[in-house]
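Q: My labmate handed me this sequence with no annotations at all. I'd like to see what the chain might look like in three dimensions before we decide whether it's worth expressing. Could you predict it?
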Amino acid sequence: EGGNKPAPKKVSKDAEKEKWMLKKEEKQMQLIKTLNISHIEALRKALDKAVNIAARNNIPPLKGRTLILCAYGLDMKERLTEAKGISQKGSTVRDAAALFSIMCHQAAEESRLFFTQ
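A: Here is what I predict for the chain of 117 residues:
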């Protein structure tokens, strides 16, 4: 009986992906703690520019007045593990909805954007 070893635990692919994503989020939180205000402003400008470029290249101009309502609830935390296009793998449905709403806001001639829960 001394030679019996417990069988190695099988880890599902989804569990491995979730583990990887949690580690990534933890690294991002550590990075956020070390950033200073000038870094944050530079990142904000770069992100704003990227969203403007993405909106111009992917969404036709919306003429006139546009009302954009984005559901941004905590129940939208499901991850997009096979995402293509506007969302990076590992992003949540909530992240994709927010990004698309902001892109529509950028593409609109005159718009109001509201986030709801």
